[in-house]
Every structure is written in structure tokens, then in C-alpha cells.
Amino acid sequence: MTAHGEESMAPQELLTVPQVMNRLQLGRSAVYDLLRTRQLASITLGRARRIPTHALTDFIRTRLDQEAAA
User: Fold this and answer.
1) Global pTM?
2) 11, 18, 20, 26: which sits with the fewest CB atoms below 10 Å from its CB?
3) In whole angstroms, what is the distance from residue 27 CA to residue 47 CA?
4) What's the rounded Cα separation, in Å, for the pair 13 and 64?
């Protein structure tokens, strides 16, 4: 185990934009709009954009909470 306990953390899956498009059933420009407006968190590795699975889950949960509050 490392000093920071990284080994106890589950590995984080990173999704591509097409994978997110498929999961949300949205087009490419809609997903990039969510990324641009920071509604959906992402990281950039070189020129590749990746979305952590927890960011997608958080986005969906937030949208569900917003719908329930409306």
C-alpha cells in the first residue's frame, strides 16, 4: 500500500466521447456542449478527451435532482 492509500481506491474507468454519446443517446455536438459548459467534467490526455464514469454518474444524478425539484 502506498502512503496515500491509492491502492484501496477502485480504478476509475475513463469514457470516450462516443461512449458518452451512446450512453446518453445524444449527438456529438450535444456532448461537447456539456463539456464546454462544464456540466460534464472531463480530462484531456494529449489531444484525447476522456470522461470519468463518476462524472457521468454525477451529471445524471444532478439532472435527475433538478427535474425532481422543478
Assistant:
1) 0.79
2) 11
3) 20
4) 22
Tell me which H or E stretch contains 44: strand 43-45
Q: How far apart are CA 46 and CA 63, in angstroms?
A: 30
Contacts of 14 (CB under 8 A, 6+ apart): 43, 50, 51, 52, 53
Determine the pLDDT at residue 11.
65
Q: Comparing C-alpha atoms, which of 37, 43, 41 is closest to residue 54?
A: 41
Q: What is the grid cell recorded at 41?
A: 467534467
Biggest distance spanned by C-alpha atoms of the chain: 46
For 5-56, write each residue's pLDDT tens digit: 444 455 679 999 999 999 999 999 999 999 999 999 999 999 999 999 999 9
- Distance of alpha carbon 70 from alpha carbon 56, whole angstroms: 21
